[in-house]
Amino acid sequence: MSAVASSVLYDNHGRPLEYVRLAVTDRCNLRCFYCMPEEGIKYMPKQELLTYEEMERLVGLMAKLGVRKVRLTGGEPFVRRDLVPFMARLAALPGIDDLSLTTNGVLTAPYVPDLVRIGVKSVNLSLDTLDRARFARITRRDELPRVMDTFYALLTAGIQVKINAVVMDGQNIEDLVPLTELTRELPVDVRFIEEMPFNGGSHAATPATLPWNHRRIREHLEAYFGAFTQLVGKAGATASEYKVAGHLGRVGIIAAYSRTFCGTCNRIRLTAEGGLKTCLYDQGVLDIRALLRNGSSDAEIVMALTSAFQHRAANGFEAERQRPLHQLSFESMSTIGG
Prior knowledge:
Its cofactor is [4Fe-4S] cluster. The chain has 338 residues and is α/β, with parallel strands linked by helices.
């Protein structure tokens, strides 16, 4: 990975922008009910997706503005062909010193040696349950064994694994303790995420009425494992991290719907079709694909990016309020980028 080549860019609220989540596809090989409707979503035509060359150019420009970390997301990244060579090119860009990815693990295991070679040190593995029947019900696919193959392959290879588990009332509450038990003997982070409304429709709950918010998740786990010790978090971290007595790994809780971490958010998102989101909850603030394909120079793209960063919502609640009325139904997380 390359050394940092530029100073940090700050948004209009004094937050550094160092981290981009790059969706390489909107396609996924699972059909998790909280991510998209049962009938699925209408995938974008291939020509509407950013090409690898366009993404590489854009990340290079962002690196000059201070972005140093790139996380590849989807959909499912490994659904897109030739992902590994693209990752290698990103890792070689001046200024990018942290390349990681989020995956559901179904297709990932054969590529673990490539991830090691490229220098990927961290992988977020989406895994909401360790029970095969519940996994099939939640994802609408019977793929848990392949996901677990990926999990153990990553650990064997020495890649840091962070399990991301969405906490859903009436769906996987019985899995919170078994998932946490993984941290007892394994050097793994298990992170529990508040359920969000990004399933292609509206969401009846508010942060105040969400059945399993971050406080209740912690209380539930502490009732079984004893009091957690909160760890000092890294700047910009979304998860509150905890140590469980006698456990090798760690537990994290992400208040994704309560939005308690917005004040230190250092990340931006790029959707697969080239939409810039400076907040997960905004409607998209810049059509970068249009700039790339209309002949804009590097300087013009940098100017547009800088302007967007200087008009960033203070938090997710403000970003949500700024959405047009006709966009108050939320997109699929597969479309946004996980």
